[in-house]
Amino acid sequence: MGSETKMVDLLKAEIPFEQEENLLLLPEVESGKAVGLVLVDILNGFCTVGAGNLAPTEPNRQISAMVEAAARLSKVFCERKWPVFVLLDSHHPNKPEPPYPPHCLIGSGEEDLVPALKWLETDPSVTIKRKDCFDGFIGSMEMDGTNAFVEWVKTNEIKIVLVVGICTDICVLDFVCSTLSARNIGLVPPLEDVVVYSGGCATFDFPIDVARNVKGTLAHPQELMHHVGLYMAKGRGARIVQKVSLGSSEELRSGHIQHI
Ligand SMILES: [Zn+2]
């Protein structure tokens, strides 16, 4: 166990990245930079134990912490009527998504928000977009050529998107990369920054000693791949933050800044 930990640390040390200490929400909003929260795939099929082919088979600390962080942030955003965009992986049974086995099939319940976030379905601050591909930016494209995410940013005049969800190195990363590409060529006005909250993201665990016994699979050690996902996002120009706080004037004055 000790040597495994050491190996992960060695690998992480080869691709280090710096994180900002704290995103202070109120000072950003009060300076005219509206912040929108994006939740990526925090649904039963990826987060609830035993809920399907891609769900955890036992309780997982990184995934539980991500769900709890997302629930706390969602509460803060909805209480203040700040915009929240919810991406939900949802597949038609006849339309597979290789290389993954069937997952989040429409009507199975796997494609629905986890119990801790179910209340978001009826909250007026929330826009829900179901997608049937990894990349939530591409998955937000509508038949008429518009993009539900781009419209959400425009309508709410969002300058900063705060991204949380699962998986750090798959759907979160793909969404972040596409959004940054689109931003760079002026497709998502008035968006300026994409911020990823590291503790609000998680990925799945499929260690090498399990993967080598399952033909055709790729090893996916959780802690390392979570790190790689954040590293790749940072490399594309995302801001990575360790904490998110409200940062009220009272907190700033007293120096006791509580994170959400
Ligand atoms: Zn999918």
UniProtKB/TrEMBL annotation:
Matching SUPFAM superfamilies: Isochorismatase-like hydrolases (SSF52499)
InterPro entries, per the entry: Isochorismatase-like_dom (IPR000868), Isochorismatase-like_sf (IPR036380), NIC1 (IPR044717)
MF GO annotations: nicotinamidase activity
Matches recorded under Gene3D superfamilies: Isochorismatase-like (3.40.50.850)
GO BP annotation list: pyridine nucleotide salvage
Record-annotated Isochorismatase-like domain positions: 37-202
Assigned protein family: Belongs to the isochorismatase family.
Protein name: Nicotinamidase 1-like
